[in-house]
Amino acid sequence: MLSDRIARGVAAGEITETYFRWPSPQARPGARVPTRHGLVEITSVTEIDPASLTDHDAARAGFSTATGLHTSLSRHRGRTYRLELTHLGPAAEHGPAPAALDERTSGELQAQLARLDLATSRGPWTRHVLDTLRRHPGLSPADLAAQQQRPVSRTKTDLWRLRELGLIDTTAEGLHLSALALSYLDSP
Questions:
Q1: pLDDT tens digits for range 12-68
Q2: Residue 41 forms beta bridges with which residues?
Q3: Among residues 175, 188, 81, which one has the least CA distance to residue 130?
Q4: Residues 169/139, Cβ–Cβ less than 8 Å
Q5: How far apart (Å, rounded) are the C-alpha atoms in residues 46 and 113?
Q6: Which of 59, 131, 135, 164 has the fewest beta carbons under 10 Å from its own?
Q7: What is residue 61's predicted lDDT score, i.e. its pLDDT?
Q8: pTM of the entire structure?
Q9: Can you give the three-state secondary structure of the chain, one letter per residue?
Q10: Alpha-carbon distance 31 to 12, whole Å?
Q11: How far is residue 32's CA from residue 79's CA, in Å, rounded to a whole number?
Q12: What gap in Å lies between CA 185 and CA 188, rounded to an integer?
């Protein structure tokens, strides 16, 4: 979700916010995004009027002018959201530590995944994606999309939803299951 330019700027302290256009929010405050420049936390997500953006806003997002930011946003459709970002330090470089998954947490996770499965016309997809990433850690979103014969943009949306649940980590090496996902897949 965060481009290399944005992640690098956040790590350097030069970028403190970014802007996206989405039909509905695709991020939530508190989400942590591992990047090759370290772990970035989304501290707030606010819908804004793009006409209100100033050069000062653009500078905080790594643009030299508001016109440049407007041009970037004009390539996309939807409402405009400001994501405030902070760098938390290096991303974990080791495999996931074991996660304890109690019955309640497992049930809640299963219900959330069932809602995601029911929200699409293609039927259940979450378990298939998790199983694929277990068999092929390090896949890129494009490789996963090709395996599923789906558009990359739709696959990225699916991955974002699973990442929001804490099931997928994205690193410079590609997509990996989190400790929570591994525990969920191993639970009866």
A1: 999 999 999 988 877 888 888 878 788 888 999 999 999 999 999 999 999 999 999
A2: 32, 86
A3: 175
A4: no
A5: 26
A6: 135
A7: 96
A8: 0.54
A9: CCCHHHHHHHHHCCCCEEEEEECCCCCCCCCEEEECCEEEEEEEEEEECHHHCCHHHHHHCCCCCHHHHHHHHCCCCCEEEEEEEEEEECCCCCCCCCCCCCHHHHHHHHHHHHHHHHCCCCCCCHHHHHHHHHHCCCECHHHHHHHHCCCHHHHHHHHHHHHHCCCEEEECCEEEECHHHHHHHHCC
A10: 20
A11: 22
A12: 8
Both tokens of 120, joined, read 């699409």
- The residue type found at 183 is S
- State both tokens at 178: 């989190």
Structure tokens at 180: 């929570």
- The residue written with tokens 């092929």 in the block is 136
Nearest to 88 by CA among 46, 32, 45: 32
Q: Using the structure block, give the residue that is written with the tokens 């000062």.
A: 56
Please write the tens of the pLDDT for every residue from 131-152.
Answer: 999 998 888 899 999 998 989 9
For 91, the token pair is: 């991303």
**Nearest alpha carbon to residue 21 among 42, 44, 50, 43:** 50
Q: Which amino acid is at 90?
A: P
How many residues belong to the chain? 188
Residue where the block lists tokens 């996206």: 20
